[in-house]
């Protein structure tokens, strides 16, 4: 374990991410920065999504907004998994989700994708990371950088826009496997360069979002997902940051995820953590159903404690099973943070 970070000794999040069975579960929330906060909506009212992502001062401010409201144990950079793709020559807009103007489905399109050097990919992301680290200096709050997993990036690039089942991508993998591998190789190298850039800029952990891994059966995932995720994590070995993997709707893949050389696996709300531990040797992250935060505080307390108790028996980072829902009341997030921080994982009476 590399403990070169100045915050590693005091960051509860980093201690748990490296495998320590901490007395309190560190807490952060996916999409904690953004759409449910009025201060974010005030910025959004005058700036487009790309403007917010590509303006370091704005991205840093949005990243820090939830930390000013809640005593969270980690911040995650405000950005999007599609951020590195324009540097490859891909035109992307948000309406409101990502839309690829010209979906990639033939050899010429995939061969035309350029592989930019790390410093070319999204320099504004590196600057935003430096700004956030400057604000967090001396505080026990770790900064998480992130990227999309190669197969999830390919899902958007081939399908072209959001879809319920991404049938075009699923057909493409079977009809054009060699072409799919060529695309995935390029996306893997892009992701490695992008994450290395974030780490060099000051990210203290990284999360690989495989949002659509759960679409696939085990054979398809082993062929088109697992080896590329493994390549990303292997390339980041020894850089002194814990590596987190998230696959949504993928409980059928957990035996395969056990092979990943990352420190943390984030799981959704569909299976209790004590059952997931049978499959995964990693620190577990999760896994409260985000919809619980729409319920009254008494329900939030009850359901959060269920997750905390299920997470006993090994290292646990408390999180949601996916992102904060946009209609979530901020005061409900405040209540959740209080419940999690009051739970003593080493006290048998709490359990």
Strand order of the largest sheet: 1-4-5-6-7-8-9
Helix content: 40-55%
The stretches of 5 or more residues where confidence is low (pLDDT under 50) are 1-9
How much β-strand is present in the residues? 5-15%
Spatial gap, N to C terminus: 30 Å
Number of helices: 16
State the total count of DSSP E strands: 9
Specify Rg, calculated over alpha carbons: 19 Å
Q: Could you spell the SSE succession in H and E letters?
A: HHHHEEEHHHEHHHEHHEHEHEHEH
Describe the structure in your own words.
The chain has helices at residues 12-17, 38-44, 49-54, 56-69, 107-112, 118-121, 123-136, 150-159, 167-175, 177-201, 218-224, 226-235, 254-257, 273-276, 297-310, 330-342; strands at 74-76, 92-94, 98-100, 142-148, 205-210, 243-247, 264-266, 283-288, 316-320. The chain has 351 residues and is of the alpha/beta class. Strands 1-4-5-6-7-8-9 form a 7-stranded parallel beta sheet. The longest helix has 25 residues, at 177-201. It is globular.
